[in-house]
Amino acid sequence: MTAAGERKDGERNLLLTLAFDGSAFHGSAVQKNAPTVQGALQQALRQIFGEAPALKCASRTDAGVHARTFCVSFRTGSAIPCERLVEALNAYLPEAAAVRSCREVEADFHARYSCKGKRYCYRILNSRIRDPFLLSTTFRVPYPLDWERMDRAAKAFLGTHDFSAFCSAGGSVEDHRRTVFAAAVRKAGELIAFETAGDGFLYNMVRIMAGTLIEIGAGKRPEEDILRALEAGDRRLAGFTAPACGLRLEEIYY
Q1: CA–CA dist 175, 61 (Å, integer)
Q2: What are the distances in angstroms from CA 74 to CA 8, 58, 107, 209?
Q3: In the beta sheet, which residues pair with residue 251?
Q4: Is this structure's pTM higher than 0.90?
Q5: How far from the centroid of its chain's Cα atoms is residue 36's Cα?
Q6: Rounded distance, CA 201 to CA 167, Å?
Q7: Could you give phi then psi for residue 97, rounded to 5 degrees?
Q8: Active-site positions?
Q9: What are the Cα distances from residue 71, in Å, to 18, 19, 103, 183?
């Protein structure tokens, strides 16, 4: 019998890094009657290996959320070199997803439990006129936003807090304390980007953070509301949940 985390003879533990356009999928986790990132990857692996290995995903994304970096680990007895596996997987995956790299990792590595943190970006198109080329990758806000005010307010997220006010119902974790070590808002033309990084994020946390900042930028609530919501732990004191289309998982730290 092989102990948990121990490598069997000839078995490798591989880490895949993918990117995907979330508008083509109903989230990352497998669903019976909808296309998902995990489902597409399992199908591609089945074509190559003849069976689908158990996948460990670093994160679970909602329908419409994008990823520049999405990590998955799995064990396999296959000896196919990593570079050839990348080519083979991309031949079978839908065009909205691509494997960017593959490497062998330690036997006890787990894409989710070995993760030390993540970085997200929420992108806003601040324009009265829609841009067809940014339709699925940004959230359009047609009224003026004060991005500098948003940037100042975002600093309240920094540090370790109970983020209960920035978590949607339906999450599976009980501990809502998280540490955010980066939170900033930048503007380039009509694009406003909220970037944040931390040791972990709750269900819809970044989207609620973004929605709150949008309301602050629009003058609908004071900058101090973020601190008030954090201290009270009351979801009703934070802003709306911004749509999934503007959110992108940028980086995963190991």
Answers
A1: 19
A2: 13, 11, 10, 33
A3: 119
A4: yes
A5: 14
A6: 9
A7: -135, 150
A8: 62
A9: 6, 9, 11, 23
Residues 6+ apart with CB under 8 A from 9: none
Low-confidence ranges of the chain (pLDDT < 50): 1-7
- Using only C-alpha atoms, the chain has a radius of gyration, in whole angstroms, of 20
Report pLDDT for 5. Answer: 47
Buried/exposed code over 201-225 (b: 16+ C-beta within 10 A; e: otherwise) = bbbbbbbbbbbbbbbbbbeebebeb
Q: Which of 138, 119, 47 lies closest to 87 in space, CA to CA?
A: 47
Report CA torsion sign: 172, 223, 194, 181. Answer: negative
Q: Where are the beta strands (DSSP E) in the chain?
A: 12-20, 56-57, 66-76, 97-105, 117-125, 139-140, 159-162, 177-188, 191-198, 247-253
Residue 250: both structure tokens together: 């940028």
* 224 neighbors 154 (Cβ within 8 angstroms): no
Helices 82-92 & 37-49 angle (0-180, nearest 10) = 120
Count Cβ atoms below 10 Å from residue 199 Cβ, excluding itself: 15
| C-alpha closest to that of 4 among 75, 79, 67, 86 | 75
Q: What is the pLDDT of residues 32-85, one digit of tens each?
A: 889 999 999 999 999 999 999 999 999 999 999 999 999 999 999 999 999 999
Contact 14, 5 (CB under 8 A): no
For 159, the token pair is 């540090």
Structure confidence at residue 173 (pLDDT): 84
